[in-house]
Design brief:
It holds the Pfam family ECH_1. With 358 residues, the protein is of the alpha/beta class. The protein is built from 14 helices and ten strands. Helix 5 links the parallel strand 3 and strand 4. It binds ligand LQQ7U7AH. The site of ligand LQQ7U7AH has 27 residues, from helix 5 and helix 6.
């Protein structure tokens, strides 16, 4: 839901009431988001190098580029509410700019060397994504879009990158199945929009097999680095489901309709090299040197001028944005109906009730 004028005014009042001094970095983000929300993109003349205070303000505001006023207003409200809740929880401690930052159990978010690293961290379930993890990722991307890091990188803990949507999300939802499907469609749309909207370079470090939504999302990434152990699998028909994360549009565009159908309709699992040949993966690395090579590369990329990368990304993506929002909305409506279908329910029940392999 978008922030209303009232939400915005409440947030402005909240800032005055905040007991905890938010620290300079946060103050600058608040300042920049407030200016963007009220005045639009930075219109302040660039201060001289020695005018440190105004230069820091200018940098923070200018870094928001052409972020729409509406989005800036929403981000301002969200930032204030996150500050309010952390001031109610004094045990959390201060967050530095270039240190381990925010942590939730199944999604780890750290900031180091200019990179926000978002890790699927549920290895005992092959990093399957729960409803809470979707929400954690939306928040992590929102924070990373306005903090001082240069890019965001997704990866997984353990042997899997991610096994896709947690198939128990629906069976464990409270309320009726129709309500769960409707809530799921809203959550999915917001989740995918947060990738479409992410303004900085977005990279996946695919450390192992990837399934379902963790594969389809890759069409919205700017770089995909894969271990040669990784595989890419979208078994939607087998699950009685249909494609999401704009893959019904990005995959045929990227690999042609025949190869897209092989993955999205027939559920063919691709090796890392096959995925590279189809344009889904940027580069494949041998497993034994994967982590070292990829992170060295990423740290180098993170030293490139951030504004240039952000502006170039905007140029590359902006003509597609409206189309992507529309595709996302349509895919979510289609999936909402699929989740209620017998085909899908049977597939989910058969996964949930499968016998132990021993
Ligand atoms: C209100 C509701 C809101 C819901 C939000 C909705 C948003 C929906 C968005 C998108 C919809 C769909 C897109 C998709 O992602 S479809 C793809 C879904 N994923 C799968 O089909 C994969 C299912 N898993 C497997 O096939 C296998 O587990 C595996 C990944 C091939 C691994 O096999 P394995 O033999 O090596 O390991 P296994 O013993 O099976 O797994 C270890 C434990 O992990 C659990 N697990 C693995 N994947 C999932 C999963 N996707 N969902 C839930 N649990 C999973 C598995 O059950 C094992 O658990 P346990 O040890 O038995 O307890």
């Amino acid at each position: 839901m978008r922030a209303s004028q009232q939400d915005f005014e409440n947030a402005l009042n909240q800032v005055k009431l905040l007991k905890k001094d938010p620290g300079n970095e946060v103050k600058l983000r608040l300042y920049a988001l407030y200016k963007q929300a009220t005045d639009g993109p930075c219109n302040m003349p660039k201060p001289g190098m020695l005018d440190f205070v105004n230069k820091a303000k200018w940098d923070a505001w200018n870094a928001l580029g052409s972020l729409p006023k509406e989005t800036a207003r929403q981000n301002y409200v969200d930032l204030v509410s996150s500050l309010s809740s952390s001031s109610e929880a004094p045990s959390q401690g201060k967050r530095g700019a270039d240190e381990k930052a925010r942590e939730s159990k199944d999604i780890l978010v750290t900031s180091e060397d200019g990179i926000t690293k978002i890790t699927f961290n549920r290895p005992t379930k092959k990093n399957a994504i729960t409803s809470q993890m979707y929400r954690d990722i939306i928040l992590a991307l929102k924070n990373a879009s306005t903090d001082n890091t240069v890019m965001a990188v997704f990866t997984g803990t353990g042997d899997y990158y991610c096994s896709g949507n947690d198939l128990t999300n629906f069976t464990s939802a409270t309320g009726g199945i129709e309500e769960a499907a409707s809530n799921g469609a809203v959550l999915l749309r917001d989740f995918v929009n947060s990738f479409i909207d992410f303004p900085k370079p977005l990279v996946a470090v695919v450390n192992g097999p990837a399934v379902g939504i963790s594969v389809t999302l890759l069409g919205l990434f700017d770089g995909v680095f894969a271990s040669d152990r990784a595989t890419f699998h979208t078994p939607f028909s087998q699950l009685g489901q249909s494609p999401e994360a704009c893959s019904s549009y990005t995959f045929p565009k990227m690999m042609g309709s025949a190869k897209a159908a092989e993955m999205l309709l027939f559920g063919k699992k691709l090796t890392a090299r096959e995925a590279w040949a189809q344009g889904l993966v940027t580069e494949v690395f041998p497993e034994n040197t994967f982590e070292t090579e990829v992170w060295t590369r990423l740290k180098t990329y993170a030293k490139l001028p951030p504004n240039a990368m952000r502006i170039s990304k905007e140029l590359i993506r902006k003509n597609e944005k409206e189309k992507l929002y529309a595709v996302n909305a349509e895919e979510c409506t289609t999936l909402q109906a699929r989740w209620l279908s017998e085909e899908c329910m049977n597939a989910i029940m058969s996964f949930v009730s499968r016998k132990s392999k021993l």
